[in-house]
Amino acid sequence: MGIVLLAKGGEEAVSELGYDRYVEWADGADIHVGKITDSAGVKLWSMDFPGYEDTYSIVGELKTNYSAENTIAVQYSDVLMGKDAYSLSSGAASLSDAGRDITLTLRHDLSERIYNYMKENGVKSGSALLTEAGTGRILAAVSLPGASPYTAVDELEEGALLNRNLRTTIPGSTMKVVTSILFAAQCGEALAEETVQCTGVYPLANGDITCVTQQGVHNITEALGYSCNVFFGREIIKILDADPDRTWEKLEQLGFQKKSSEVPLDRLHRTASSAGYSGDGSFSGTWSLIGQGTTQASPVDMVRIVSALVNGGVCSEPYLVEKITAVDGEVTQQHKAKTEQLMSSETARQIYETWVGAYDAYYSEKNYDDRITMAKTGTAQYSDGTESSLLMGYIAQTDTAFYIEINNREEAQISPADVINYVLAAE
Ligand SMILES: [Zn+2]
Question: How far is the CA of 312 from the centre of ligand 1 (A)?
Fold first, then answer.
């Protein structure tokens, strides 16, 4: 190795070394590799601790054969190993104190509590993303099935190494929050005057929009509270299809793209939301904004939208890496707040008030902790006949935005609301 290093230039060569060759090469030089901790200093990974089951799919670990690649440990391996500190004159000894520690925004106590509760109550496939809406700090990014670092990769359940919060899902009626924002952006205060009579079915070319909730004449607050598909279907065609280009402009501001793509979250990659909205009045184009069909929502985008709704239209970008610290305690990188305007302040206030009104009037106190400020349920149907349950919402008292999904809802003994109630019971 030494000859290769001299020939290539030491720093460059060291930076290219994979984890295993790095350890082999530096053998005996007493290299220091940093650790990953949560926001309270709880160790999530270090050379002598492979990690927890509840955080493994997002924290990962450094080892010879990476198994969970889209993780902090793997994507920040150069930081943990301090490879950039290599100097040719002192060789491997220059790395003895070079590895830096990474402090994440996660709260391990919260993450473990949610993970165990979901797992013990029959959730085989699901996710829970909780962020601090005002800062974007990701407090928990729970994903099931999870992966124990002590289990061999070929014995893990399928999908255990991919954190579902970094992917997308069918949003079901949680999409109605997004669509309400589109309505308000288009018609402002006049939205409150819009009413639609729901008789349970609204026929369109290529299919019928059906509604199984309370029938009658609904305004936006009732329609959001009852989750009336007919109200949304009719208003999508009347308000949004009148100017599909403008609708798409607003959808893109909210994070929805025409085609699925990857966007960064710190150094991790996440799939961005995408929508099958066409604006042509067809069943599929309309149904897409009611949260079915080809629309895919990212839990990260959904909590960004909640963040914007409660902060005057401006979201704080969700993030995981709070700071990076050298061995001597010097902070070499500190997160800088990043914000983005997703909607006007008028639209944010209007839909925030509408949503809170709908939640207060139509969501039972029996099923939802009274500290929840607003929530919207969703059910998504899959082609294999299975259904998932979703919940999107906000808790003002702790400034928490959340997006929860339980995929195998028939088998699970709990609902997404139970997950939030359980979190609140311990806070
Ligand atoms: Zn209806």
Answer: 30
Expressed in angstroms and rounded, the spacing between residue 202 Cα and the centre of ligand 1 is 9
Is the pLDDT higher at 400 or at 96? 400
pLDDT tens digits, one per residue of 250-273 = 999 999 999 999 999 999 999 999
How many A from CA of 223 to the centre of ligand 1? 7
* Dist. CA 228 → ligand 1 center (Å): 4
DSSP letter for each residue of 308-360? HHTTTTEEEPPB-EEEEE-TTS-EEEE----EEE-S-HHHHHHHHHHHHHHHH
pLDDT at 9: 61
> What are the pLDDT digits (tens) for 312-367?
999 999 999 999 999 999 999 999 999 999 999 999 999 999 999 999 999 999 99
Reference 229, options 150, 297, 286, 296; nearest CA is 286
Of 279, 239, 236, 271, the C-alpha closest to 255 is 271
Buried residues in 263-301 as b, exposed as e (16+ CB within 10 A): eebbebebbbbbbbbbbeebbbbbbbbbbbbebbbbbbb
In angstroms, what is the span from residue 220 Cα to ligand 1's centroid? 11
Calculate the average pLDDT of the chain: 93
**Long-range contacts of residues 190-195, Cβ cutoff 8 Å, at least 24 apart:** 191/220, 191/350, 191/354, 192/219, 192/220, 192/221, 192/354, 193/219, 194/219, 194/220, 194/235, 194/239, 195/219
CA of 212 to the centre of ligand 1 (A): 6
Better-scored residue on pLDDT, 25 or 164: 164
The Å distance, Cα 213 to ligand 1 centre, comes to 5
Distance in angstroms (rounded) separating the CA atoms of residues 88 and 85: 10
C-alpha of residue 196 to centroid of ligand 1, in Å: 9
The residues near 27 (Cβ < 8 Å, ≥ 6 apart) are none
Q: Quick check: 290 and 173 in contact, CB under 8 A? A: yes
Helices (H) and strands (E) in the chain, counts: 15, 20
Which domains does the chain carry?
Answer: 143-321+338-426 (3.40.710.10)
Residue 64's Cβ-count burial label (10 Å; 0-12, 13-18, 19+) is exposed
